[in-house]
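Office hours follow-up: a student asked to see two folded examples consecutively, so here they are.
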Amino acid sequence: MKVKFISLASGSSGNCYYLGTETYGILIDAGIGIRTIKKTLKDYNILMDSIRAVFITHDHADHIKAVGNLGEKMNIPIYTTARIHAGINRSYCMMEKLSSSVRYLEKQEPMILEDFRIESFEVPHDGTDNVGYCIEIDGKVFSFLTDLGEITPTAAHYISKAHYLILEANYDEEMLKMGAYPKYLKERISSKTGHMSNSDTAEFLAEHITEHLRYIWLCHLSKDNNHPELAYKTVEWKLKSKGVIVGKDVQLLALKRNTPSELYVFE
């Protein structure tokens, strides 16, 4: 079975990912405009009516902007925890509240959606409630951890299962420290319920990389406190210090904030 992955957008301004087969797929988060989602999928010859469901990680605007449209206007089921659903409908960005499209998930209770086995799990962040997703399809395991302040034992468990890992590298510590953000925001970002720095992510991967991990995509890069090349180099250097060679032992990519990635196809 061919499995397709696209990052439609990944950054502090909006996040949305597609994972699918040759005939249907799902979205993880929908924090960009509905027209952008439709156009990007169309550019890759993916029909909107082939989207079976949307899975939401938390209720911050950069992850939910289009869910009202997808859920209520297009009748696509929106899956997440009860607390995240409550947070979504309280959000200022929700012009179209969710009702008929609401579907509930319990953390660490797997669900089956056609060929997908999908399991949500707790991650530390400052949304109303926060999850990552571990998704298995045709023996391939994708783990999505897009916003988290630290890698807990639970998060580490799901990272260790992944063949394909989407993991946050939000900020460069020096750029955040020297940047123009107010003190409270800098403290929020660098807290245990904020975001992962490039060096946090690099250190963890270097110490815990598995032989079955094939791809790492660095996601949710900050517009003001990071650069794709900097995130990439920080992780590449740390992996190299442990004898792991990017391009040979594992593939590493820093996802773009506002433009889609290439279409990745895995068999």
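And the second, which I mentioned at the end of office hours:
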Amino acid sequence: MPFAPVNGQNLFYEDTGGRGPVIVFSHGLLMDHTMFAPQVQALQSRFRCISWDERGHGQTADPEHCAPFTYYDSADDLAALLKYLGVDKAVLVGMSQGGYLSLRCALIHPEVVGALVLIDTQALLEDPEQMPHHEALLKAWMEHGLSDDMATMVEHIILGQGWGGAAQWRHKWKQATPVNLGQSFATLALRDDISPRLAEIRMPALVIHGSKDEAIAPERARAMFKGLPQARWVDVVGAGHASNLTHPEPVNAAMEEFLAGLH
């Protein structure tokens, strides 16, 4: 099994290999590396695609232990993973939480970042109006497990309503342990606002956002887009939070065009 022993972690990753330009995919909260399967499938013939499970998630997670961490720690993990794999520079693709760590990687490890693709993410803190709802859901989940009703709520927040592939994610969410849930949400809630530092991120960026994203309102992503010196915006009409997973065709098309312009 491909695990990278870096920064005191055993990071699970998948690497398509090859000699093409490198793209590394960082997933959102409660997700794992497989959420980028549509992008990896579309791009792997021309790019070396690396996807990984972050702390507290997927096969990187220890069911019984998750030490406190920040998204700067996750950014360090990403840079260390690239070094472990012998990669000098990559395009960072990050969805939601993956965007949080990718932005921070661009700030603290700019030498490894060739460009950014930021999917349904933001530079701001969480919306204060949403936090009490998130906290109540988390408390019930940690104390009683994920009920079917709560799973439906999580599904609608992340995947929207009626997406055909939701069942596998509902199953994964029910396997999550309280220690990983608690620390992952704490990291989310306690992160800093990096909006004032966006002007430091000079590499090209593509900002992709679902028009019906209920987790991160599009105007919050637009604020990030406007703060990045070299960014372009793509609106995914009708998509919710995980637009790359539920609406892969327009997302892949936008990425293909952006990537073609880098070389």
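Two things to take away from it. The chain has ten helices and eight strands. The two ends are 33 Å apart (CA to CA).
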